[in-house]
Every structure is written in structure tokens, then in C-alpha cells.
Model the fold of this input.
Amino acid sequence: MADVAIRFKDVDKWFGKLKVLSDINLAVVAGEVVVVCGPSGSGKSTLIRCVNGLEGIQGGDLIVLGESIVRPGVSMSGLRTRVGMVFQSFNLFPHMTVLQNITLAPVRVRGLGATEAEKTARALLERVRIPDKADHYPANLSGGQQQRVAIARALAMQPKIMLFDEPTSALDPEMINEVLDVMTDLAKDGMTMMVVTHEMGFARRVAHRVVFMDGGRVVEEATPEAFFATARSDRAKEFLSKILSH
Amino acid sequence: MKRMFSVVVAVAVALGLSLASSVGAQQDTLAKIKETGVLTIGTRTGSPPFAYVNKNNEWVGFSIDLVEMLVKPEVQKAVGKSIKIEKKESTPPTRIPLLSSNAVDLIAGTMTDTPQRREAVDFSLTFFYTGAQFLVKKGSPIKGVNDLAGKRVAAQQGATNAKIIREKYPQAQLREFPDQPAAFQALLQGQVDAYTNDGIQLYGLKAKAPKPDEWDVVGDFYSEEPYGMAMRKGDAKFKAAVDAGLKNGFESGKYFEIYEKWFGPKGELPYPMTPQVKAYLLKQIGK
Amino acid sequence: MNYQFKWSVLWSGQSGVWLLQGLITTVEISALAWVLAAALGILSGALRTVPWKPARALATAYVEFFRNVPLLVWMFFWYFGVPPLLPRAVQDWIFNHGAEFWAGMFALGVYHGARMSEVIRSGIQAIPRTQFEASVAMGLTTFQAYRLVIVPIALRLIVPPATSESLNLLKNSSVALTISVAELTFQTRQIETYTAKAIEALTAGTVIYLVLCVGIAAIMARVERRFAIPGLIARGG
Ligand SMILES: Nc1ncnc2c1ncn2[C@@H]1O[C@H](COP(=O)(O)OP(=O)(O)O)[C@@H](O)[C@H]1O
Ligand SMILES: [Mg+2]
Done:
């Protein structure tokens, strides 16, 4: 078996009395791109937020990069330096320039020198195709540009895994592709990625596997070809018909 | 919070008067009393036995009795009808503004008659005579005004004593409190080594202390503190009525009966009148 | 009305010196108390929003306890209540070295710290929760996330309410006269004692407070513009 980056073992997750993840068993191997889809409220965000410890789990085990993250005493900030995350709402820090946003964690967490951090940051901006925006404030960027900065910011920590929670849902349609293109590049470079998205075109082109969730369970798990061709469950069929009809 | 309230009142009054500074003619207090049937006095709530709220929640005292029993009849005679006395709280910082703004007509509390104050208000005949002394712990090295070097001395803000200490005895560390309870508390706890005020007030405090025997009133009078009733400046008719009331009291002996009630052996605060003080008071009416 | 105005009492004799001394004391006690209040306010305001219950409970206790008791009581507490806990020799030393000023400063700072805390908490709560998540998701510790991201944003959001709280602090510094701190209001009363010109003295005090307040408001407005978050606070200037 290939190198497993993330492994969910019988994971249960509760919000108070509400059970939002039931009996999740899922493995993501290094270099794999997994798209998570499913109706709203099915637990997709919660699932990936467990991977970097933004949510804790109440049952089962979750192993990330070889380490159980439910073991008492595990360093959350240590884990998070190795797992990057991109949010639907960008979450750039509004009081900092683009460059400051990107260099913050490398300097403060990894102890990089300012010049070196800046050099890396500029290279990353090149990579997400907005080298000229380094000294702008987030408010002066378009949504698509902000999301690409957010990706660069996550990459600055040189993570082994990237998590995306609906990265294009808050964007105007004409900006979606510039973000998906960056993500596609990243996938081609071999990044391990879990992507919550409704962009089925992206799933078809880039994903190695599609996971379909409903009611806090993984209902289907298949290659994109298999999933789109022959979704087995009724819920998945219904979901696909809705999503692909427009 | 009463204190902050009085500051607020004073500021409000100040602002109001500044705006209206040139307005208004000479106020005739007797005419006003005749019209309203009320003589409003500004007095104290916590200065026994001159003016204070007693255990039965009555607002009483020596100064208040003087107004009720000596001044009131004379004012009634002057306005030709019977009047009521109303009392308002006034403190050293607020009493002159209260008077100037017509909020009260007469200050009858523990106000010392001084030349500076005479520039702002008129004073009646002196109705009580005391002088500044010190309240100290028994056995204190402070025996009088010449032992203050390096000592922490509490005084009441706005009082004449504080002024004298500051000017004439700068080697003392002066601490000024806005009211008597805070100054006395500072003495009890050792924040200060002595509390200076008019002797009569110090005797009053000593009597109220948890253990009166532990405290001593020491020193000769280092200031003269003749208490008078204050009125708006230049209102001769009203002043004549007030003075006549006090004068009648001295002449008829009524004043000394009232003194006996408050300062006699069975009074609120025994403080026998010395012959010198009696002579001083009577000299005012030419006796 | 027969009040004779005599404004010259404000510059004749020692009045001018007293007003100046009072002004300096007011500015000193307010500035020190403001620093204390800001530190306590930021600390407790931040603690009230962290995802750890005991810290929240502690900060809430501080805020509720201190802001719900009148400032005057705190002045007495620090001046009359605290020293007896110290050895007699220490008491004498501090009483000879400005105990009144320091007690007043602590009372003012701790009391307004509790009020500032509420302002800062509301600022932090105005920031979407996901800002905090984005910070820790990059590997910042909770402390770093607050220090580098959450608090700096919150401080920029709360300049207007913090300004009015600062003005309250300045004005409340006059309560320190109850424990013998010779600040501005104290000195205006002193002038009244000496000159029997209460209205002139109080007017002078009022005008000085007004000038101080307007000055602070102007400085804070500059601070607000200087540190405005681009796009978040759209203001002219
Ligand atoms: N912080 C939370 N507290 C309580 N319930 C939550 C919380 N976050 C999510 N949930 C609930 O958990 C379920 C799954 O939510 P989520 O993972 O956000 O779904 P999805 O991302 O698939 O839309 C939903 O019922 C949601 O209401
Ligand atoms: Mg979601």
C-alpha cells in the first residue's frame, strides 16, 4: 500500500447532541487529490476541519502524516504547520499587506528571516500569478486574487497536505477558473489535497477520487469516471442531477 | 456620591451664571421670602452638633435651631407673615455658588467668617467662636502647630485651616480630604499623623471615635474661626433682619439656652463656653 | 443677581500655578491609569473570547466585579483598604511617598480596565470567527493569533468607543480628590477657598477639562485615520 497521508478510522463527531460524522473510514494517500461533495449540511466541512484539528472528534482515530491527532499532548500548532487550509471566505488579514499576510507564519512559526521569507513569498505570488500585488491590502484585491493569496499564504509553510473548503463558492463566476487553475497546478506538482467543492468539472479533471457524503456518512467513494458514470446511491444521483443541471 | 453630585451642581451653576453674568438686578431676599413664604437655608448633613441628620433621621443642630428660633421670628416680622424654613445640603465648595444662584438664601452651618469670603458674601454676627487645633493619637509627639515638620497632616478641602498650614507651615505634609469622615478615617488608620480642624469639630469626632480615650485634641488655637451665617452681598435689609434675630438672642439669653441644649453637660457635645468666648460674642452687640 | 465677577483671580496670586499643577497631576494620573486600563482591558477583553472556559470565567469575574462598584468605593479601597494589609513600616513609607496618587491611579486604571475590557471584547466579537481559525490553521498558537491578528484588528475597530472611554477616564480622575490627590478639580476648589470666587475657579476647571477632552478626541481621530484598515473603515481624510 502506498504512503497514507490521512486515515480516518471509525471517526464519530458530535456537536453537543447532534451527531455530524458517523463511522467515517477513509484513507488519503500521499499525492492524492480527493474531492468531497454532498448536500449542504452533510458534514463535508466538518470532515476536513478534523484533519487539522479545528474540530475535535469524539470517537475513533484520525492519523495525519503518521501521527494520531487524538493522542493526548499532541501539538496542534505543529500539526497545522504541515497541513495548510484554504477557506471559502479567504480570511486574509485585512490590516496586513499581501506580503505581510504570506510571511507572517513563516517568520513567527518557522523562524525564517524576514528577507528569506519575503523571497519565498514573492516566488509564491509568482506561482499563483499575481506577483504585482505584493504591497496591496486585501481590500484592494478581487475575490479571485484574494483567494490566490490565501493559497500562497498556506503554501508558504511548505505543508504536506492542503485542505480546501469550498474555495470558489464565494467567487463571481468569472474568477472561479483563475483559482481552480492554481489548484490544478498544485495537484500536478503532487500535493496531497482534500477539496470540498461543487465544481464537478474540476473533480472530473483533477481528482483521483470523489467522496460523496450525506447525513454525516461517506455514502460513496469512487474514481471520478465511475462516480459520474454510475453513481449507485439514490442520494448521489439526486445530488448530481441537481448540480449538473446548471 | 452626594459629593460628586454637589460638584456637578456647582459646575452647572457656574456655567449657568457665566452665561447670564450680566443679567439680573439686586435680589431683595425679603421680598422673595414674602412672595414664597419660604426661607431656604443651606446647611450641613454631617457636622454635629451644628447641623446633621440624627439617629431618628431628623435634620437638626445648633445652627438650625438658631435659624428656627432666633432668625425666623425676626424675618417673619420683617415680611409681615409667617414663613417656613426649608433646608438644602451645602458643602464648602458649593455653598457660595448655591447662594449666588439664589438656590438658597442663607448659609447656616459651620462657615468661618473670613475677609476673602466677605468679598463674595455678607456675614451675620458671629454665632460661634472656635479655633483650629489638632486631633492626634494619645502620646503623639505633635503637641501643637510647631511640631509638624515632616508630619502628615489631614485637613478638610476648602477649610481655612488647610490654607494656614499650607502657607505658614510648609514643612508639614498636607493631605486634604473633601469631607470629615474621609479625613478622620485617614487619621484612624495612620495614613496621616494628625487631623486639623476647628477645635469644636475635633471634640465632636473624638466623642464619636470607636475608643475616644485613645485620641487627644491638642494645641492652642492657631487660627480664629468665628462662625457666621452667610448671605448674598449687599442685601442690607435681609442682613439687618438676620442680625436682629441673633442680637435679640444674645440680649434675651435665648441664644445661651440654645447653646446649653447642644453644648451643655447634657448636650450632644459638651463644650463649655469660656468667659473669653462669651465676652467676644457679647462685644458684638456692644456689651 | 448680585454676584461680582472677578476673573483676575485666575491669574493673580498663586492661582495660575495651582491650575497648572492640577493640570499636570490630572494628566499624569490619567495617563498612567490609561496605560493600566488599556493593558488590563486588552488582556481581559481577549481572555473573554478565548476557547478556554476558566480563562473566560476569570476575565468575566474581573469585569463584573470592578465595573459594578462605584469608582469612589475603589478609591477608598485602594487608599484605606489595601495599606493595612502591609507591614506598618511599609505603610509609613508609602504614606510619605504619594500613596494617595498611586491609590488613585490604581483605582482609576483597574476600574476603567474593566470598562475597556467590554469595548475590546465587542471589537473582537465583531471579527468573524474564521479569522481566528485562519490564523491558527497556519500554525500560530492561540496567543500568537491574538497578538498578531485578532487584537490588532480589534483595536482598529474600537477607536471610537475607546476614545469615549478614555475621556470618561480623564473626567473620572477628579474623583481622586476624595483621597487627597491634588488634581485639577481639587485645585479649582482651592482657588475658591482662597478667593471665594467659586464660579471663576470652576469655570477655569471646566474649560481646561474641555480643552483636554477635545485634544484627546482630535488625537484619537488621527490615530483612527492613520491605522484605518483599508476597505474596512471607509473614512475621508
Ligand atoms: N460549530 C458547530 N456547532 C454546531 N453544529 C454545527 C457546527 N458546525 C456545523 N454544525 C452542524 O454540523 C452539520 C454539518 O455541518 P458542515 O460540516 O458545515 O456541513 P457541510 O460543510 O457539508 O455543509 C450541520 O448540521 C451543521 O449545522
Ligand atoms: Mg461547508
